[in-house]
Amino acid sequence: MLAQSAAFSGFSVDDLAAARAFYADTLGLDVTEENGMLTLHLAGDRPVLVYSKPDHQPATFTILNFPVSDVEAAVDGLSARGVVFEHYEGTEVETDAKGVFRGGGPLIAWFTDPAGNVLSVIEAPSPG
Fold first, then answer.
1. Which residue among 8, 60, 119, 121 is least packed, with the fewest CB closer than 10 Å?
2. In order of start, what are the domains of the chain with their CATH numbers?
3. Which ranges carry the VOC domain (predicted)?
4. Minimal CA–CA distance to 81: which of 24, 35, 128, 42?
């Protein structure tokens, strides 16, 4: 029944203006606003809805992963734009001084948006 539906995901924030500035200016994403909500226009025609919620609670899991061909370069570039990467010490996902997890599987680094939602850059081979 829904197999052909162009489904999309969404998540809440507590400050739409701060979210727009972060996603558009800091991360460099194409962001539009309509009906009091943001749409993040991601590669591959994958829109993500961002909406304001007065009693917003940050997600306790990664809500959005950005595949990149080089996590080191992505971390360096985003850090230069003011993104602060999470550091997990003494856990099964322990990260290094840059915030990169190197404990098996793909390299990944987590950061948060202004609302506290967790995002990541994750190393993935380039398609093609």
1. 60
2. 9-123 (3.10.180.10)
3. 5-124
4. 24
H/E segment holding residue 36: none
**pTM, entire model:** 0.91
DSSP reduced 3-state for 71? helix
Question: Contact 36/91 with Cβ under 8 angstroms?
Answer: no
Q: Give the separation between CA 8 and CA 98, rounded to whole angstroms.
A: 32
Angle, alpha carbons 10-127-68 (nearest 5°): 55
d(CA 51, CA 56): 10
Q: Are the C-beta atoms of residues 13 and 50 closer than 8 Å to each other?
A: yes
Residue that is written with structure tokens 């203006």 in the block: 17
